[in-house]
Automatic annotation (TrEMBL):
It comes from the Bacteria. This is NAD-dependent epimerase/dehydratase family protein. Pfam families: Epimerase. Residues 4-230 form the NAD-dependent epimerase/dehydratase domain. Coiled coil: none annotated. One of its GO terms (molecular function) is GDP-L-fucose synthase activity.
């Protein structure tokens, strides 16, 4: 049994990770914005003293959609505060712990292959630039501290995660959940289904439990490396719409596309050759099966009403 600290432990990824860690018998301390303000220096030192084997750093101040367009300054300050405080505490107070933290696919420059060696090269997309750079700085901070103090870390870069249990607290949803919610509301409530962009932009998604299992498989044997954990293939928004509509029972011809709205990157697909070498067969859930489970959860929890 390991002693494990998880920041951002009540978010979408955090909830699935903590459930898996508890199932494996680990003892957890789970942090969120209500019980520990990571923007405050000394917040981690104020916790009950404990020696951790693993620290999973998931906490970040961001949302999906066009959130990053409207909060670049705040994102820089808040995320730098969070990451600096976690890194400083790790190196000074918990140097025996392995730090596992989340990167972002938007840190990659859009005009180069999304392979790990390119993570720090080039310019990220302008609309996500600030958030991307805070993730790059987190990565560099871990590398710098590990080099000076002989520490261990692992960074994993996901594509968009999906599955049951997504937050429905009023924050903007990642695109796949927004598609599901709008199409179910169109079917059940008669709402118009209006999507941002022309539908030809492409996205990559990976089932959250597959991601968690792969990340945990990497932890014991992969030190001081960055690893992409995505699906390795992308799908157009219109193809996602067709698949969701078939499960929900909604006519995709009724879906409207608003080409004047923000769409982000037109295409974004991680190179996952490294992950496939390190964790063969980690993509266990097909897109059809994953969407079916996600949609069933939306109906069961009536999440489309929130």
């Amino acid at each position: 049994m390991s002693q494990v600290l998880v920041t951002g432990g009540t978010g979408f990824l955090g909830t699935h990770l903590c459930r898996k860690l508890r199932d494996q018998g680990h003892e957890l301390v789970v942090l969120n914005s209500r019980n520990c303000d990571l923007t405050k220096q000394g917040s981690l030192e104020a916790l009950q003293p404990r020696r951790y084997d693993l620290v999973f750093h998931l906490a970040a101040w961001t949302q999906a959609g066009d959130f990053c367009l409207h909060h670049p300054g705040e994102q820089w300050v808040i995320n730098q505060q969070i990451n600096t405080n976690v890194l400083a505490w790790w190196s000074a107070v918990q140097p025996q712990a392995k730090l596992v933290f989340i990167g972002t696919s938007c840190a990659y420059a859009p005009d180069a292959p999304l392979v790990e060696e390119n993570y720090m090269d080039g310019e990220p997309i302008d609309s996500l630039y600030t958030y991307a750079m805070t993730k790059r700085m987190l990565y560099q901070g871990a590398r710098a501290l590990a080099k000076q103090y002989d520490l261990r870390w692992l960074s994993v870069v996901p594509s968009t995660l999906y599955g049951p249990g997504y937050h429905t607290d009023g924050r903007q949803m990642h695109f796949i959940f927004d598609l599901v919610r709008k199409i179910i509301r169109g079917k059940e409530l008669g709402d118009p289904v209006v999507l941002w962009g022309d539908g030809h932009q492409k996205r990559e998604i990976v089932y959250v439990d597959d991601f968690v299992d792969a990340m945990l498989a990497l932890v014991p044997g992969v030190d001081n490396e960055l690893v992409n954990l995505g699906a390795g293939e992308e799908t157009s928004i219109r193809s996602f719409v067709d698949a969701i509509c078939e499960i929900v029972g909604y006519d995709p011809a009724r879906v409207q596309y608003d080409t004047a709205r923000y769409v982000g990157a037109r295409s974004k697909c991680l190179d996952v050759a490294k992950a496939q070498r390190l964790v063969p067969g980690y993509l266990k859930t097909s897109l059809a099966e994953g969407l079916d489970r996600t949609i069933a959860w939306f109906f069961q929890e009536q999440a489309y009403l929130r």
